[in-house]
């Protein structure tokens, strides 16, 4: 008796299809014996928009929601392409999925694997997770402009934060901290963004009282970026808002060997909609179709997917294979085609 | 005939008084022969607030405005001090000065001086300036909360951006670029903050047309942090908003030898009010009064002050002395008292 798990794959634009192809190879190779991953592809992204004018049609969104999980490559066209002005694939597709599927936990682990090269001279043992809020903050699209295009234009962006949205995220972060080194750092800018800051601080303090074994720390976003380059080993779990989390996780990717290795999960912990797994990197149209992209971030996102679906052993096997592959790559040092990395990891999984 | 230039000094809290003392020594030593710097001290900050309840009384603000320039050390008490809850020295004092005196250019140069130690393994030639907006954006204090303190709280922060405010800043940045390596990078998050982003992009493009010799580039804030650690040498002039500028300049300080070296000028280019010069670092109450703080950032801020007041030669002499001092410190490597660094730089200036 085998169980079928349905996966919606959105390869997307640029290097997206190349890295997703490798990620799916690895998914099949790492699947438990009694589990069948059934993949349905959705052709969405800038390419689809340019062909048909569609960004994310409602009926496709509905069909995507019927799956057990989503794998996304990367979406977005060539920067500055005039045909994409006003379309905003990021807001209309990527953020729409995160918001509509209530992906309130944007989970972004950072590990400096042996063999990966950090730009830091003395990175130390880097192993932390950013728990980024995914459905609120400055990302809600609540802004506008008046006298647009004139010398008197005024443009606004509103960051919306709710106790409901912040508390559920903070609770997830504390729970995660208990499974790790039991340290949690709230990152915000409470001295300037006093209203949102007070809300985040109050709820972090409140939930902290329920987790007496977790050591809690606070850093302003500016100070946090300093520690990312001077002492990243100090972090375990970082909890922060949507915008600060965006910034910190690109920096986190950079210090831990490049965002070619940075994986992420857009998690709906309640299970009311499928969670979505994607590399942190973008579509990199400049190297698309050349088999130059490193699929490791997409493959590590598969480990997050497996873990989320309850296949912790399979997830660990994928992480271990990536770890082994990075170490052996560091020895040979030869450049790799995208598919070679996928093949190497599949070989490690099946050997 | 000597000219008198009036300086309002706000030593502030923590290490502020120690670093300002050295900065003022250097100011006097570097003054042109026919210029007299007359210093008036204003005791403002968390310390004053705790003693008297005052943050920035109106009449003191008026007196500060009568000066030719302001030197500020650092303000802010011990983090978490319950007596400071609700006072917000940052908003009521530091930001009030920036906003009231229309310091719309927050100028933050980053140079990796020979002898300074970067946490990056291969930093390259780091020499860029962040031109941070100082009077708008998420810093305007336009937010609020409802059902505050309840499980139904909603808290907002509004980023306000005006064509007037953005254009004058962008223009300053382009002008500055022509005096440097003629490269300008706009940093924003146009794909998510579409309203403010469009305004910043439109005005940067418009002003760019007047500066055909300046090469213009755009980066999302998240991508910019990656380049700060992988290739900071690519930057010349960066123009960005108040919040992104705050984040980028702490990171810039960190990669270029620590924020003990990072200087800043809060500039009112129109001269309608005095400009203010301050180190980027905070009050560091944990090491206050111990002569442990490095006054170099405060001293480099004096170079910015001299330059702003039209004493370019004196400014260059201060920078050169700092450069020489950092190089000689790197050779001996012995820890220094705050006053020793000030004395060493004065000695270099007067020898
Ligand atoms: C593409 C963009 C909208 C997105 C974000 O800002 O969240 C990306 O930077 C990320 O971090 O996943
Ligand atoms: C103290 C704080 C309000 C200030 C800011 O955010 O501007 C500081 O971080 C800075 O960069 O000067």
TrEMBL record, chains A, B:
Catalytic activity: (2R,3S)-3-isopropylmalate + NAD(+) = 4-methyl-2-oxopentanoate + CO2 + NADH
InterPro entries the UniProt entry points to: ICDH/IPMDH, IsoCit/isopropylmalate_DH_CS, IsoPropMal-DH-like_dom, LeuB_actb
Known cofactor(s): Mn(2+); Mg(2+)
Pathway(s) per entry: Amino-acid biosynthesis; L-leucine biosynthesis; L-leucine from 3-methyl-2-oxobutanoate: step 3/4
Chief location category: cytoplasm
GO biological process, one term: L-leucine biosynthetic process
Single GO MF annotation: NAD binding
Entry binding sites for Mg(2+): 222, 246, 250
Isopropylmalate dehydrogenase-like domain segment(s): 6-345
Enzyme Commission numbers on file: 1.1.1.85
Co-factor binding comment: Binds 1 Mg(2+) or Mn(2+) ion per subunit.
Site (Important for catalysis) residue list: 139, 189
Any one Gene Ontology cellular component term annotated for this protein: cytoplasm
Binding site for substrate: 98, 108, 132, 222
Keywords attached to this entry: Amino-acid biosynthesis, Branched-chain amino acid biosynthesis, Cytoplasm, Leucine biosynthesis, Magnesium, Manganese, Metal-binding, NAD, Oxidoreductase
Gene3D superfamilies, alphabetized: Isopropylmalate Dehydrogenase
UniProt binding sites for NAD(+): 282-294
Compartments in which it is found: Cytoplasm
Record function comment: Catalyzes the oxidation of 3-carboxy-2-hydroxy-4-methylpentanoate (3-isopropylmalate) to 3-carboxy-4-methyl-2-oxopentanoate. The product decarboxylates to 4-methyl-2 oxopentanoate.
Assembly information from the UniProt record: Homodimer.
Family designation: Belongs to the isocitrate and isopropylmalate dehydrogenases family. LeuB type 2 subfamily.
Listed name of the protein: 3-isopropylmalate dehydrogenase
